[in-house]
Design a protein that fits this description.
Number of strands: 0
Strand content: under 5%
Largest sheet: none
Mean pLDDT: 87
Order of helices and strands: HHHHHHHHHHHHHHHH
């Protein structure tokens, strides 16, 4: 039986493995196999197997120790399987077994598991919960709990992006106020408000003029918050509009080039090359391109 279980597991015959594992008495289970089975089930996304092992051998029996990397894999599966309570249970399990050790690696696991918890709430509540409540959860679970040096990036929160996109127009307009006024929960991390701005810069229903206006107003009020991700989003959004790009880099005139990744300028150079633009007509944009080339 043992050899057959391993073979079926490695050959991804997970339905057969699960049917057989369900019949194995608890005291007869091979825990070395169970660890392999859990890892392979996570790797290939067999949620039925993952759920069975998690609830029977981890939650109820507490006999299988799951490492942080595998906890993250289980959590990511739970997001897309809409298991809304599971990511919270996974995070509690992590804190219980690994939370006392303050190491750089454990900080990464903690960030990832809290991100999974936040994303799961955003996805599983769907449109039943408005975006400001989901933003509140992000602030409580991540902004207020993780070190201030933690960098939040919009690409790590696709379900929050989708939640903002699905918000009503009134809800979207209301969130603009959160960029400039403290609401509900204090914002501590310097990357949080720029990420909220970036949700809006990615919003397809907002015009380019509105996005540029929001960007300028935000960084006029919050001059010392990080700009790079926001600039990159606008550059991509305006990649075929040299006038807006010229305006953007004119506004960022005092923004040190050393803070901006060279990748920001790649689409800008493409516009100049493809459209054979006169650099004299777009001096600020041309200056940025020339400066980035020389660095």
């Amino acid at each position: 039986m043992r050899r057959r279980l391993y073979a079926n597991c490695l050959n991804r015959n997970f339905d057969e493995v699960l049917a057989e594992v369900r019949e194995i008495p608890f005291e007869s289970m091979d825990y070395n196999f169970l660890k392999v089975y859990l890892a392979k089930s996570c790797q290939w996304g067999h949620t039925e197997s993952v759920n069975h092992i998690w609830y029977k051998y981890v939650v109820r029996k507490n006999t299988l120790l799951v490492d942080p990397e595998l906890l993250c894999s289980i959590g990511n599966l739970a997001i897309y399987d809409r298991k809304n309570f599971m990511p919270n249970d996974i995070y509690k399990y992590y804190v219980k077994h690994y939370g006392r050790e303050e190491t750089p690696k454990n900080s990464q696991w903690r960030y990832e598991l809290l991100r999974i918890k936040t994303e799961s709430f955003a996805r599983t509540t769907s449109t039943k919960t408005n975006f400001r409540e989901k933003w509140k959860v992000f602030l409580q679970d991540m902004d207020n709990c993780l070190p201030l040096i933690t960098r939040f990036r919009v690409r790590d929160f696709p379900n929050l992006v989708e939640s903002y996109r699905d918000e009503t127009q009134d809800g979207k307009d209301l969130m603009v106020e959160y960029l400039f006024e403290e609401k509900m929960v204090a914002v501590k991390n310097p990357y949080s408000l720029p990420m909220l701005l970036n949700f809006m810069l990615l919003e397809t229903s907002f015009s380019a003029d509105l996005k540029m206006s929001l960007f300028k107003r935000f960084f006029t009020v919050h001059q010392f918050l990080p700009k790079e991700d926001s600039v990159m989003i606008l550059v991509r959004a305006c990649s075929n509009d040299a006038y807006r790009l010229n305006d953007l880099f004119g506004f960022c005139g005092d923004f040190s080039l050393s803070e901006m990744s060279p990748r920001i300028f790649q689409p800008v150079k493409k516009v100049f090359n493809e459209k054979q633009l006169d650099q004299g007509s777009f001096p600020l944009l041309a200056a940025r391109i020339n400066s980035s080339t020389s660095h």
